[in-house]
Structure formats: structure tokens, C-alpha cells
Write a structure and sequence with these properties.
71 residues; mainly alpha; Helix Hairpins
């Protein structure tokens, strides 16, 4: 998932995607423990996607607080 795609999503979509990715990471970690994970890079990619979403949510929260203080 690219950052441009993340920035185009609404807050509700971001929260839903965040939940989906966290669940997917949990499943991947479970597979890694049981040695059934075929591509271990998926865990790293999932973590980065979660970080991208959290970054965009924090940016939006910060921008909203700054705009509210200016008024």
C-alpha cells in the first residue's frame, strides 16, 4: 500500500483498514510460530502499512488541532 493511497482514504476507512491489517499481522505471526509462513517479508510489509496509516491519522489529528487553535 502506497502513502498516496492511504492519504486518499477517509478516517473511517483508515480505521477499518488498520483493524484488518492488525488482524492479518496476528495471523502472520501465528503462521511464523508454527513454521507455516511461506514469505516472511509479509510481516515487515504489514508493519510498514500499519505505520503509514497511523502516521496519516496522527497528521490529520495534528492538522485539525492546529486549524482549531488558529480560529
Amino acid at each position: 500500500m502506497k502513502i498516496g493511497e492511504v492519504r486518499q482514504m477517509s478516517d473511517e476507512e483508515l480505521h477499518a483498514e488498520l483493524e484488518r491489517l492488525r488482524r492479518h499481522l496476528f495471523d502472520l505471526r501465528s503462521q511464523a510460530v508454527t513454521e507455516k509462513l511461506e514469505d516472511p517479508t509479509l510481516i515487515t510489509k504489514g508493519k510498514r502499512d500499519v505505520a503509514r496509516i497511523l502516521t496519516v491519522l496522527r497528521e490529520r489529528r495534528g492538522a485539525g488541532a492546529t486549524a482549531g487553535a488558529a480560529q
